[in-house]
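tool_call predict_complex ligand=zinc ion
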Amino acid sequence: MILETFPVGPLQCNCTILGDEASGEAIVVDPGDEVGYINRRLTDLHLKLKQILLTHAHIDHVGGALKLKRLTGAPILLNEDDLPLLAMMETQAGWIGVETPETAPPDGALADGAVVGLERFPAEVLHTPGHSLGSVCLHFAPLKLLLAGDTLFAGSIGRTDLPGGNAAQIIESIHSRLLTLPDETHVLPGHGPETTIGVERRGNPFLRGRY
Ligand SMILES: [Zn+2]
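tool_result ok
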């Protein structure tokens, strides 16, 4: 297995490449920016891109998706509850003062319960609204790995003050969908360092006082 996570763009969104050397296939999660680098890594690793998966439609996570699709031919998948957010790309670019990246409607939906990813490394889509309406996490159960987008961070949780955000909902999503995963599950958040479900269950100050 090949697993590379690296920050891209001005907001340092964590982009992840997951590849299978045996099949030569890969997925990319949240190619927010620096598509040239992402594509070069795929080429250097001799991987053919099978899917582009977006944890949600914020600009720092989706900004490079269409460019990467044009370079590789891979389809883009996004939860459909984030389509209104995707349509607001010019507004989003204004928030952070960057040029508006070109976007297009996704090729498929990341619906709750759907299985995506690679044949040897499949992921279940967990719909975890709260940071945005269509935020999802990707749970690679056999790998004990969760790609958490901007729902859960090491010691923190995603902001809920942007359109579609809901503070009560993100807490509910994390408790009902993420803290129910095994303690040893590695968590790769959409920003910042990695953590585990157990560490966050015990120590995340935003998740206290419920049990
Ligand atoms: Zn976000």
